[in-house]
Amino acid sequence: METRFTINISLQGPGGKITYGKFSLGRDKKEANEIFSSLKGNAENVSGCSLKIEFLEEIMGLPVPIGRINCCLDELKENIAIISKEIFRIAHLENGNIDY
Questions:
Q1: Which of 10, 80, 81, 99 has its Cα between 20 and 30 A from that of 88?
Q2: Separation between Cα atoms, residue 65 and residue 3, nearest integer Å
C-alpha cells in the first residue's frame, strides 16, 4: 500500500474552504510528523476567516487528515519557510524521499 504525507494550506472564509497550497513531504511518517510538529499555530478552531494548515496521510490516493492548525499571516510565512527548508534538506541532502 502506497502512503504519502502532504501539507495543504487553505483559507477558510464565509464562502467555504479555498486550498491554495500543497507540499509533498514524502513517505517517511516520522520525518513528516517532525516537520508538522515544528510548525507554528494553534490547534483550536477559529471562527470566521482563518488560514489553515492541514497535515494529511494519503493512502492509495485518498487523503486522511492527521492534524490541523490555524495560523496568522506571520506564522504562515514562518511555516512555509520551515517546510521549504525541510523539503530542500530531504531532497538534496538525504538523497530525496520527496515525491514530485
A1: 10
A2: 13
98 within a domain of the structure (yes/no): no
15 in any annotated domain = yes
| Domain boundaries, position 56 | 3-93
Q: Please choose, from the candidates 41, 51, 48, 27, the residue with its C-alpha nearest in 3D space to the C-alpha of residue 82.
A: 41
How many CB atoms are located within 10 Å of the residue 89 CB? 13
**Residue 76 — φ and ψ, nearest 5°?**
-60, -40
CB atoms closer than 10 angstroms to residue 51? 19
pTM: 0.87
Q: Work out the end-to-end distance of the chain between its first and last CA atoms, rounded to an integer number of angstroms.
A: 19
What average pLDDT does this structure show over 3-19? 90
Indicate the number of domains in the chain.
1
Q: Looking at the domain assignment, is residue 99 inside a domain?
A: no
On the question of pLDDT at 71 being above 90, the answer is yes
